[in-house]
Amino acid sequence: MNYASMDVGELAALFRDGDNEAGNEIVRRFRDSLFAFCVRVTGNAEEAADAVQETFLKLLSIRKKIDASRSLPAFLHRIAYNICMDGMRKRRHSFNVMDFSWAEKSFPPADEDVMAIERTHSLEEVWDAVDKLPLSARTLVELRYRSGLTPDEIAEVLGIPSSTVRVRLFRARKLLASMLRSHREGGK
Amino acid sequence: MKRREGGERIEGGAPMNRDEREELIERVLEGEESAAALPDPASRRELEEARRLDALLREAVRLQPTPPCPAALREFRFAPRRRSPFRIPVWAAVAAVLAAALIAVLFLASRDRPPTGDPHELQALLTKAADDSLPPLDLMAAQRDLVRFLADNAGSLRGLRESGRMPDLDAVWLRSCRKRLQRALQQAKAETSPGERLAILEQAFDDCRGVADEASVRFYRETLSDSRRLMDESVTKWAEGSEADLSWADGVWRPFAVVMSPDNSWKAREIRLAWRAVADGAESSEIAARMGVLPRGVAAAFAVAAASWIARDARYHPALVSGGDILGEAASGIEASLLDGREGVGAFANFTVMPLWTSFFVRKGTLPARVRIRFGRIENFFDGFDSVMGRKGINPRYVLDEIRAALHADDLYLLNRRPGAAEWRLAQLYNEAAALPASYAEEWRSLVNAVNVLRFLRGRAVLSTVFHHPRSAVETFVAGLSLPEVFSGREAARLLLAGDFDRVHPDFSGAGVALHLFREGGGPVLPDNHLAPPSSREVSPTSGDFPGSF
Lengths: 188, 550
Known about the structure:
The complex is a heterodimer.
Chain A: H1 8-16, H2 20-42, H3 45-61, H4 72-92, H5 112-115, H6 117-120, H7 123-132, H8 135-146, H9 151-158, H10 162-187
Chain B: H1 18-30, H2 41-63, H3 71-74, H4 90-110, H5 119-129, H6 136-152, H7 154-163, H8 169-190, H9 194-207, H10 214-239, H11 254-260, H12 268-279, H13 284-291, H14 295-311, H15 326-339, H16 353-363, H17 367-374, H18 379-391, H19 396-415, H20 421-432, H21 438-457, H22 470-478, H23 489-497, H24 510-521
């Protein structure tokens, strides 16, 4: 059976029915993106690796509950996200590790200079700015761009309405633009 | 959001708020809405900014692909599913299990195995039978229930022991003792009469040996000291011929007060000497020496005093005369059997085999030995006895102690299904008694005579006070000793005093033993009507008709 050519839905269905080779194909496809996501969320590669491994083990333990008709990437990211959050809550002794207060702020309206960001900032500067985003904004950006999830899938991962995801994603980008603009102005 | 399809604002509708506008921009960015739906130029500018940033981030991801995860994580694999080439259908597996279970049941049922009994029921019965906070009648009923259970389930109890499911009888007993002692301490502290206080404490401490804490023991000793001082003062006055104030004597000292009362008919000299010696803390042999009588005379005197007092339903505590010496113990045992249903210590005719044995070794400080000896190695006891006789010379005290124990060992031999051996050994000892000083030899003979009592009682004995030692009771029954009828000591005494000799043999009871001793040893002889029912004869130590003159 050629697992590499199967789509994620097929793999999920096979894995649910006990085919561990399908599960290994799922691992191969998602381990890197999940690891990157977990690194961005936790800020620690060791913890991220543990979280990814735990994610796959969790998937194994609840394989019977896999719904092949729904997004497996969203399902995996939700598991990973919850594992990361649990770990962070334990370490910080605080429940509220996801602060969305930034999303309530207003940012200056776009101007011509902002339109030129892509011409004036290097790749490193963009990722540096992403890294400096608040965790909640960074998580949204990671899920949307690096993990490639749709707003609806992100909503499933984070357990919030998709409309909220869209609004926060919009504002996260504006925050990122503001940070890049500040960086550019500081560099002048 | 009120929009027409395509994102157009409904004419006359409310303007979009910030959230709605930004969500719309995001939808346009994703291609889900047309840019024409945007309500104003500012929104369109923001859409443009969002597009550029979106493109920037996509480009950044494209140019910096996700780094691979660590090598250790790359090795993660789900283990291949192992399927047995010999798959057994579920129905076949179930059938195999059922068949195996059926075979096991049939095999076990075919074995000659004692029933297992119910350890929980036993534990509940033990706890209740040892709970002396119950009213006397309820306690007696609880004890009877226990004995019935034991009698009905002797085989089951053996099964329990063999299966290791026997309740922790020591724990039951210990809990009961602690409760009893605590309650006694509270009662004693609330009691103003030293005699009453001491009576309460004496009983509690005697019953709960080894359980009391340091503070409780101190309180007990202080009470004992106060009480003894009062008694000493009164006895001194009384011995000098003055009339003593006996108001303090309620409780433990009451029999003394009875005897000391001016109109009692006891022989004043012996009794006064005895009280005095007791007040000095003398042991019975010393008391006897002071009185110029055989020790058993002291025991008998005390026993009769107790017997007289029980007839008036008064309270008396036998521990007064128990101090580690044989005769005091004998007296206390006799009286205990009459009064409290307790086994006392050394109440050899009480036929409370295990409690006596236990008490003996507790006093000797060799409690673990009783277990060892009880179960089949009684020969060790005789070896020990021989070594005492052979290596240390003849020590009358040891001899008497050991003979007393040997009397009970006779019953232990019953338990071990080797009747006769103890009697044979006792006969040897009896002959050897010639080497002892005369007074001890006499005492020895008296004690050995009790073997005849035991022999007579065998087969229709009354196990009177096992209830105070549930463990012993259980083990007695487990060992196969069956007794036709069981009474508490108090009940036995009452039956005896009521003349019910068909059910309780007089030789069993304390009074009967006293009678036996007196007759055999030439001591005071009780009037013939001593054992008549109290209802037909008013017994009062002050009425002058009891216990008669001697």
